[in-house]
Write a structure and sequence with these properties.
Helix content is 68%, strand content 0%. By secondary structure, the chain is mainly α. The protein has a domain at 3-101: Tetratricopeptide repeat domain (Serine Threonine Protein Phosphatase 5, Tetratricopeptide repeat), CATH 1.25.40.10. The chain starts with a helix and ends in a 9-residue tail after the last helix.
């Protein structure tokens, strides 16, 4: 797949707002026509469309196949985040947490993953971990109080912290 294909995929997503499901499925099918249906990038786009349309139960398998097939680079991390979000929406919070912890701190998408991780932790009944994760992710982007927020996030681990 070349840069023109990547550009067409980007254009597809940038123009998707306001279109109905049938139209989007048809446009994506046209965009993917003639490509290997087992290509991880193809599977990722199919899963992403299902996810976008709220068809989470149909998104899981192609996300998993894309990841198993070796989806490269940042798309792999996008797939991990999107699959985790989908699993969380389907009530599979522990699997979502497991996927989101695979995004390394060095990734451009680490903060994004941490936001979804906080949601999954909250849904899993781990509210202290959720708040800690959210504060830790937020702290570096604050203007004045990053150090304090980081300290409070770490303090949440202390015995009795949840009662404070």
């Amino acid at each position: 797949m070349d840069e023109s294909w990547e550009y067409r995929v980007e254009t597809f997503w940038n123009t998707s707002a306001g279109k109905n499901a049938a139209q989007l499925h048809a446009e994506l099918a046209e965009l993917l026509h003639g490509l290997d249906p087992q290509d991880p990038r193809v599977l990722f786009e199919i899963a992403s469309l299902h996810d976008f349309l709220g068809e989470e139960e149909h998104a899981v398998k192609p996300y998993q196949q894309a990841l198993a097939g070796g989806l490269p680079g940042q798309k792999r991390e996008e797939a991990l985040i999107q699959l985790a979000s989908t699993l969380r929406n389907l009530g599979q919070c522990e699997q979502a947490i497991e996927l989101l912890t695979q995004i390394p701190a060095t990734s451009n998408l680490h903060a994004d993953a941490q936001g979804f991780l906080a949601l999954a932790l909250l849904d899993a009944g781990r509210s202290t971990d959720a708040v800690r994760t959210a504060l830790t992710a937020l702290a570096p982007s604050t203007q004045l109080y990053g150090r304090a927020l980081t300290a409070y996030a770490q303090d949440l681990s202390a015995p009795g912290a949840a009662q404070r």
